[in-house]
Amino acid sequence: MSEKALENPSVRRVRQALVEAGVGDKVVAVSDTTRSAAEAAAALCVEQGAIVKSLVFSIGGDPVMALVAGDRQCDTKALRDALGLSGKVKRPDADAVRAATGFAIGGVSPVAHTTDLPVVIDASLGRFEAVYAAAGHPHCIFPTTLDELKTLTGGTVSETISQ
């Protein structure tokens, strides 16, 4: 199953985005599911904090993304402030997440979205030499770094969005 996942259309979109960004096709398939940060950490034998959670929120009705370390929670007020937005922060349903990103929950990648999303990145990801992000499928991930995530997403790094 896992090698076949590399040919999934969503995964191919992530692979292509990484190649176009100049970092190369570094998506790997794993046999265990990586739907949650805990599952991904166990599958990769890394600390849970080294997993990048790609979280979609709606602020004032507009979708945004927070990339948060797997051992932290997103502070939604700080997220709203980091983006300079006002309005109520909500967690969208699965259909809204797919509409905003092109990915199903459990495989939402920080790159290759089908719409342009503002992104805020948890600075605590910098604790790790390598971090691991979803690649469009529950069995696919790619290794990256905090600096590379910033470059890939055009995101803003924040010291305050996680707790």
What are the defining features of this structure?
single chain, 163 residues, alpha/beta, YbaK protein, 8-stranded mixed beta sheet, 8 strands, globular
Concise synopsis of the structure shown:
By secondary structure, the chain is an alpha/beta fold.
Instruction: Assess the beta-strand content as a share of residues.
Output: 15-25%
Task: Please write the string of helix (H) and strand (E) elements.
Answer: HHEHEEHEHEEEHE
The CATH topology name reads YbaK protein
Radius of gyration: 14 Å
What is the tally of beta strands? 8
Using the 3D structure, state the CATH architecture: Alpha-Beta Complex
Calculate the mean pLDDT score and round it. Answer: 94
CATH C-level class is: Alpha Beta
Name the poorly predicted regions.
none
The CATH superfamily appears as YbaK/aminoacyl-tRNA synthetase-associated domain
**End-to-end span in angstroms?**
36 Å
Q: How many structural units, i.e. domains? A: 1
How can the largest sheet be summarized? Answer: 8 strands, mixed
Total number of helices:
6
The helicity comes to 25-40%
Find the structural class using helix and strand composition: alpha/beta
* Apparent shape: globular
